[in-house]
Amino acid sequence: MRHPAYSRLGRVKILVLGPGAREHAIVLALLSEDADHEIVCAPGNAGVAASGIETPDLAYTDPAAVASFVRERGFDLVVIGPEAPLVAGVADPLRAAGVPVFGPNQDAAALEGSKAFAKRIMDAAGVPTGRAARVTAVAEAGAVLDEFGAPYVVKADGLAAGKGVLVTHDRDAAIEHVATWAPHGDVLVEEFLDGQEVSLFFFADGHDVLPLSPAQDYKRIFDGDEGPNTGGMGAYSPLPWVAQDFVAEITRTVALPTVRQLEAEGTPFIGLLYCGLIVTSKGVRVIEFNARFGDPETQVVLARLESPLSQYLLAAATGTLAAQPEPQFSEDPAVIVVVASEGYPGEVSTGRTITGLDAAAEVPGVHVVHAATARDAADGWVATGGRVLGVVARGTSFGEARERAYRAVSAIELEGSQHRSDIAARVA
């Protein structure tokens, strides 16, 4: 049975939870629809507020606080953006109260919250992935690393904001990574998989899935994929180099089996299934799952989405994806370049002034999403975190989209800021 809000999709009262660029991108996609939705983003950020959206201060990782806020305001749909509230179980009391929620419950969110859980689900569902072994203490790490061989892949089991993964040829560094993360939980040593990485998102309603357009992100801080991992320094979409049947193959071999396995175990996955994939010489393998839209890939995927996002969010939340057509995307490519603070991904310098945002937004095909900004006393902009801004550009070709993105980046001034200069260079 469809939720009553679905039949009046012309206007839906939507709460988007989260403070980052991903949530800003979701809000912008909702605002671009013909429908006059009532949108609230909590806690949101200064960029979201500048888009004319209410951004109430809300403890968005606290299930009771969120449930109380939703009950008071009477939302038709709640969209949970980041991983932290999902793993904290924010979806559970909302769903129990009959509120349509786009985001898995706490048990299903373990697909991202625990890499060991994800590996077990993949094995049970027959999903292609690399070998992995669990390590609980430094004393056993050496033997496991020697068994798998270099390059060594070491992953913290729980959430680590993109910083819990180490890929290295240095055995001592791999052991040190185990030592860093083992006190906080299990650590996985995995088989190294060589190839091009792909991010592919799926809307999921607990039984069915619908794919979005694939993207590729850039995880390391420096050009040429050098330096430490980050939360993501840029991305582009679509991927002209994947096979024509790539999306259909991943739907059949990865997304559907995973969602059906979770359903069979009594933990239906409702929300956004992020498949982190690698195209190897032996076929496509899953590196990881996330339980939410990826950042910064979301910004380029949603920039190309031509179908109304709200339609799919609500269909997933209400179990009606099977009645929906596949989402449609513009053929125009999109590129995002992330502008980060000095020191990122380590200790960062914050509070520095940002100028040039208006000039950047005036570049054709460009919009800027905010990740970590605030207004100062003079109503100017300051940086408040590591990844500060995302400059998103569309164009009729990758070359045009890329040129526009970097032209806009060059207009932005932030002392000590850093960005990669090679985003989408391989396809331009």
Automatic annotation (TrEMBL):
Enzyme class: ligase
InterPro entries listed in its UniProt record: ATP-grasp, ATP_grasp_subdomain_1, PreATP-grasp_dom_sf, PRibGlycinamid_synth_ATP-grasp, PRibGlycinamide_synth, PRibGlycinamide_synth_C-dom, PRibGlycinamide_synth_C_sf, PRibGlycinamide_synth_CS
Keyword Membrane: no
HAMAP family attached to this UniProt entry: GARS
Pathway per the UniProt entry: Purine metabolism; IMP biosynthesis via de novo pathway; N(1)-(5-phospho-D-ribosyl)glycinamide from 5-phospho-alpha-D-ribose 1-diphosphate: step 2/2
EC number assigned by the record: 6.3.4.13
GO MF, one example: metal ion binding
ATP-grasp domain sequence ranges: 119-318
Family per record: Belongs to the GARS family.
Essential cofactor(s): Mn(2+); Mg(2+)
PROSITE patterns to which the protein is assigned, alphabetical: ATP_GRASP, GARS
Reaction catalysed by this enzyme: 5-phospho-beta-D-ribosylamine + glycine + ATP = N(1)-(5-phospho-beta-D-ribosyl)glycinamide + ADP + phosphate + H(+)
Keyword hit for Signal: no
Name listed for the protein in its UniProt record: Phosphoribosylamine--glycine ligase
Biological process terms in GO annotation: 'de novo' IMP biosynthetic process; purine nucleobase biosynthetic process
Protein's organism: Leucobacter luti
Encoding gene per record: purD
Record's keyword terms, sorted: ATP-binding, Ligase, Nucleotide-binding, Purine biosynthesis
